[in-house]
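Bit of a strange request maybe. I'm writing a small parser for structure token strings and I need a real example to test against, not something I typed by hand. Could someone generate the tokens for this chain?
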Amino acid sequence: ALPIWRFLRAHQRIYANNTARWDGQWLLASLHGTATAAQKSALKKEFRWEGFAPLAPGLFGYPGDKREALTDMLLRTRMSGKVIVLSATDTGLPGARPIEEITADAWPLRDAARTYKKFIARFEELRQLLSLPARADSARAFTLRTLLIHEYRRALLNDPQLPASLVGDDW
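Reply from user aminoacidic:
Good idea to test on real output. This should exercise your parser:
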């Protein structure tokens, strides 16, 4: 069974309004202190699920405010006091590598794009059917709508939900 906290976090990721403009702030978490390999592994899994990316060994970053999710993660994985949490901005120093250059490598954007393309391809025939004058009966329409919503949520949960300035306008 799905733990209630996982359900609540998924609900927030799917239904929260993520249209706010990004202010350029990063949330950084650095693994320090004594922790078991199992604790570190569990935390890394949680980081990835929440959209954090490994920016360097032991350093994870997310463009935006995920302090509430991070607090929950630290408590659940028993890593409180073993992670340094910082807020930062990209200073844009001349000669420094811009974060946008590593976005595609740090986050699983190719996988997320593949999932979205698969979703679109899978339901393309449905889109074409809906343009026809004859409509499906209500039971079939309900089933198709339920499948579409389920698959869309699955695609959305694979999306790290990064700001448009990091992924580009075509995302």
